[in-house]
Amino acid sequence: MFRGLIVTLVVALSGAEGPPAELNDSTFASWRDLIRPKVAERCFETVHWLPTFWDAVMTAQKEDKPILLWAMNGHPLACT
Amino acid sequence: MLTLAAKFVPAADEVYRMQNLTTGTDPECRLFQKFAELGHYRRPGATRQGTYCVTPSGVLLGSLNSNDPKRIADLLDQSLAKWGTLKREERLLPTDPRKQQADIKRPERHYPEDGLVLNVTSRDMPREKGQTNPTRAAWREFAWNQDFAWFTKAEARQFVPAEVKVGNKQDLPVELLHRIVCAHLIDNVRGQTSPFEESEVKKARISMQVTAVDGDVVSLRIEGQTRTAREVRREHGLDMRLLGKATFDRTKERFLTFELVAVGSRWGSTQLNGRRGDTDAAPIGILFTLAEDSPCERVAPAFTRHPLYRPVMSDE
User: Fold this and answer.
1) How far does B213 lie from chain A, in Å, by closest CA?
2) What residues are paired with B74 via a beta bridge?
3) Which chain B residue's Cα is nearest to A34?
4) Which ipTM was obtained for this model?
5) Chain B within 8 Å of A25 (Cβ-Cβ)?
6) If residue A13 lies in a helix (H) or strand (E), which one and from where to where?
């Protein structure tokens, strides 16, 4: 029966049907994992972006390399 | 693509500050404007969003605004070829750019090295059975966003009850509570939004309770409820329940772990948050976790100009 309850909870939190269960100590981890970005969603971090353009200017000047700049309204590594 | 990108120094940045010809007057903004004005968007006053390949001296190698991997790979390839044709004195600045760093007044210089830095993720939660998600583009259904929340070392200490004894409970001070509520419990899932003013906080409480003490390490349970609402033009708000846990090292005066989940409902829309046509109350989730001490996670919070961020942004 216990296993059945867990399966029901996982299905509910997967978003397939209906709202998730109420937030409490026993559902906390499921909610956390539902919100937390998956590895594939963070694939942009496989490039080791510096957080400011000037950081790149200083590094590129020292290393004699070109700069690849990703510039967006709202910081691309934060709230776009 | 990664092999190509490794031949560059990659950086990501917010474009609005840098492209503004009136207020963007520091060396970083001026250097950006030098090449961005020659890039893919040349129309005066237009956005300068996009991907740029450029030399440290500001020579534009190529640019475009696209999320097509093939087009970006071509841009990198062509830019590297152009880089190879330039002489060293054309590629590099005549003086060391580190000397100008102090002239660049970015919020990132207030990064609280010894304080508390949280990664804040937001995402839509599954809706009631039968409650449709009136979105036209698939990306909206799976959208998520992130920001960072900063607290100084002195503020981080205030998350821990004054008397560390199992069972002791303490409410978070109003200034810190309202910073979380107004600047971070917001609906930015589909794009930039605006923060709440303190006058728009209808209900807010976050309490920290000591659940264990093991030597220097204090375990905490976090619990709370908040409600914010803008009731004038572009009505919107959030009604949230919070639950979390954290551990704090009293000797190092640092959080070792921190996980706080906020779930509830959002409604309404702001100018840019992509909620037009989806303004009825719907579930949202926001997660606060410890940020890593990596360059990627040193980006400043979106609303460092909010009055509630003054203690962090102070130069004193």
Assistant:
1) 20
2) none
3) B125
4) 0.89
5) yes
6) helix A2-13
Task: Please give the single-letter amino acid code of residue A71.
Answer: A
- Nearest CB to A78 within list B80, B147, B244: B147
Report in angstroms the alpha-carbon separations of A50 from A44, B37, B95, B116, B294: 12, 23, 21, 21, 9
| pTM of the model as a whole | 0.90
Q: Mutate one of A28, A54, A65, A73 to test the B interface: name it (highest B CB count within 10 A).
A: A54
Q: How many residues does chain A have?
A: 80
Determine the Cα–Cα distance for residues B18 and B37; give it in Å rounded to an integer: 11
Q: Say whether B53 sits in a helix, a strand or coil.
A: strand
Q: How far is A2 from chain B (nearest CA, A)?
A: 24
| Residues B1-46: tens digit of each pLDDT | 888 999 999 999 999 999 988 899 999 999 999 999 888 887 777 8
What is the pairing mode between strands B50-54 and A67-72? antiparallel
Q: Which residue of B has its CA nearest to A38?
A: B144
What gap in Å lies between CA B287 and CA B71, rounded to an integer? Answer: 34
Distance CA B238, CA B181 (A): 9
DSSP label of A20:
P
A18 vs B contacts (CB less than 8 Å): 126, 128-129
**Tokens 């001070």 found at:** B173
- Going by C-alpha positions, the residue among B66, B19, B26, B18 that lies closest to residue B44 is B19
Check residue B301 and report its DSSP letter: P
